[in-house]
Amino acid sequence: MDKSRFSIDKYKKDTIRAIDARFEAQKIAFSPLTFQAVRALLDLGILDCISDSGENGIAVSALCKKTGISEYGIKVLTDMALGMNIIKLAPESNIDDVDMVFTLGKVGFFLLNDELTRRNFNFSNDICYKGAYYLKDAIKSGKPDGLCEFGTQWTTIYEALASLPEKAKKSWFDFDHFYSDIAFPEALPIVFVNKPKKLIDIGGNTAKWAIACCEYDADVEVTIVDLPGQTAVAQKNAEQAGFAERINTFSGNILSSTTVLPKSADAVWMSQFLDCFSLHQVTKILKKVYEAVTDTSDVYVLEPLWDKQQFEGNAYSVMATSLYFTCMANGNSKMYRYGELVRAIEDAGFYLKTSHHNLGSQAYTLLVFRKKSS
Fold first, then answer.
1. Which residue, 56, 59, 163, 355, has most beta carbons within 10 Å?
2. What is d(CA 50, CA 74) in angstroms, rounded to the nearest whole number?
3. Is 319 left (phi over 0), alpha (psi -120 to 50) or beta?
4. Residue 111's pLDDT is what?
């Protein structure tokens, strides 16, 4: 067993004390309210003021003056923040003091300063929060019923991206790019060890990977395959980066029977793409890839697999992202485990050539496939 990773045995043994389990259940019961309390603490500048006060802390009365929030509002939010370990009482302060003094706790530090936490929080608030109410409906229907919060004219969130409110759109792309982009520096040497000249980037989105490839290798040509709205943005970004001659786009719905992928690429790249589809659809997509590649083409799949994470907290975040896919994105996909994703790709006629784990700070896995011998 890799000792740098948390043990999957954690999911087999129920060792938590009953009193602690009851506490965890109370956290769940109040989680919609506590989430919004944290949002208020952040948006109203209360946590920033407490953080700026340093080790000496800041009193309720001073918080009222600095933020313009009433004493009642400050006390309601700081009471809950104490209960969530977001803030702490200063060493010289007492719970019975009329003017309690607070310092920032470790949880509060991460809420303010940890990029992973901030992007997850903004994504949950701006994309998922209202739509999550429809999760049960989405489970039953197999459709992203929560997407109705943004409009009823789309069947998936990907069709809606270009039309989302700017704040929501920013949170979506910040979330999406934060995870996979972190793994790019470690993935590039693996992909280019065989010097591919033509690379197809399926689900290329805003062209970040395509641009990174062109910056890494002066000879590669990349074709981005994505929906029309995404390819328009990708083409614009490629031109701005100075790679218009080496980055092309191919618009189409990968699931459509009429979409045929460009042929004979040296490599095919899919970054955080297959988790947007059901396992049945994954196999269907890879069958199209099978028809497009040669026996010597490498097919690269970059995904955050929850059972290959180094830390339990990261696995939790990946698991939680599946709920977004259910209620907001498409209603039928999830963040996969290693074994189930590999099997779905092998069912399309490929074999797993190599796998590379723990890429980037979010422990991405890069799977490399080739066609099985006929």
1. 59
2. 12
3. alpha
4. 98
